[in-house]
Amino acid sequence: MSESSKKIVVISGHPLAESFCGALKTAYCRGARRVGAEVKEIDISALNFNPELKYGYTKIQPLEADLLQAQATIEWAEHLVFIYPVWWGGMPAKMKGFIDRTFHPTWAFSFDPGAKLPTKLLTGRSGGMILTMDNYPLIFRLLYGMPAVRQMKKMILNFCGIKPVWFKLFGSVKIATASKRKKWLKTAEKQGAKDGFNG
């Protein structure tokens, strides 16, 4: 890879590698690499760490080696893409634990004494989300207000300084035909190529 290659990290939140989220990750990475991007992957299900904040936010819990490596990978990246299923309106449990443990104060953000707003420590990076669901995206938008999107985009990524952030919703996966899934995979691949182009 050249020094000008776009640096992308793709973070997978589905606990099963052989899932449609896994297929979307493969397609996205293929598109990004095709245009010359340097892509690194973080598979949360394969990481060894305690997802529980044992002390809440009273102190920083020592990070396991896998989480330290994840932080280093995120620091390296210019663009972060999260791929995961929407369960109960949000993200899978271990993925939430990954966010809780990894995006901690002093690394992702900080509150300075007397400050009313946090200091964003992950600025200079953009983001994206590919979300799958058994619901229909239109219902997810209009009836439920897209809680998974708002949580990741506004409350996590933007809060830490990562923007702009795009998102794509694919559903209903449960009843999708083979041709529909193929179309979604092509969309993910095209998005990877778009993100990876560093012209």
**Tertiary shape:** globular
Placed side by side, the strands forming the largest sheet appear as 2-1-3-6-7
Distance between the termini: 15 Å
Number of helices: 6
> Strand tally, please?
7
- Biggest beta sheet attributes: 5 strands, parallel
In CATH terms, the superfamily is Flavodoxin domain
Helix content: 25-40%
Determine Rg (CA atoms, Å): 17 Å
Q: Judging by the overall fold, what is the CATH architecture? A: 3-Layer(aba) Sandwich
Note poorly predicted spans. Answer: none
H and E order: EHEHEHEEEHHEH
Number of structural units classed as domains? 1
What is the oligomer described by this structure?
Answer: single chain
Keywords:
199 residues; alpha/beta; Rossmann fold; two-stranded antiparallel ribbon; 18% strand; globular
What report would you give on this structure?
By secondary structure, the protein is α/β, with parallel strands linked by helices. It has one domain (7-196): Rossmann fold (3-Layer(aba) Sandwich), CATH 3.40.50.360. Helices cover 37% and strands 18% of the residues. The chain contains six helices and seven strands; from the N terminus they run βαβαβαβββααβα. It has helices spanning 20-34, 65-76, 93-102, 137-142, 147-157, 178-196, and strands at 7-12, 38-43, 79-85, 109-110, 119-120, 126-132, 165-170. A five-stranded parallel sheet has the order 2-1-3-6-7, sandwiched between helices. A two-stranded antiparallel sheet has the order 4-5. Strand 1, helix 1 (20-34) and strand 2 (38-43) form a beta-alpha-beta unit. Helix 1 packs parallel to helix 6. The longest helix is centred in the C-terminal third of the chain and has 19 residues, at 178-196.
